[in-house]
Amino acid sequence: VQLQASGGGAMQAGGSRRLSCSASGRQFINYTVAWFRQAAGKEREFVSAVKYGVGTTYYSDFVKGRFTISRDNSKKKVSLQMSGLKPEDTAVYYCNAKRGLTMSWGQGTQVTVSS
Question: Which residues contact 89 (CB under 8 A, 6 or more apart)?
Fold first, then answer.
């Protein structure tokens, strides 16, 4: 699958934002889709994921309770609803789709949170 991330922008701390990851290609329903982020000068880190099938969700500790991931297989889209944003959430956010040994990355969308 090919991925396109969107929805980033600049916002103030405490605000909310919804990121979208749109996919093209076949069998999207069989992919686990995840969001990662990479802040300037830091390594890319896992944020959240939604598994194929029953859609089990996973969150990193630093976003648990603030971010919600969801998927709409009919639209081939995964969303990341972010709330309670903090300056430390500033990063480029990437979506990732994985099925077995097959993995794809989107191009990233910048999220900037000011205090």
Answer: 37, 63, 82, 111, 113
**Residues 85-97: pLDDT tens digits?**
999 999 999 999 9
CA atoms within 13 A on the CB side of 17: 22
What count of other Cβ atoms lies within 10 Å of the Cβ of residue 72? 11
Tokens 């701390």 appear where? Answer: 13
The first and second tokens of residue 106, run together, are 């989107």
pLDDT of residue 20: 98
Q: How far apart are CA 99 and CA 28, in angstroms?
A: 9
Evaluate whether 49 touches 35 at the Cβ level (below 8 Å).
yes
Asked if residue 26 has pLDDT above 90, the reply is no
Q: Which two tokens stand for residue 50?
A: 């939604």
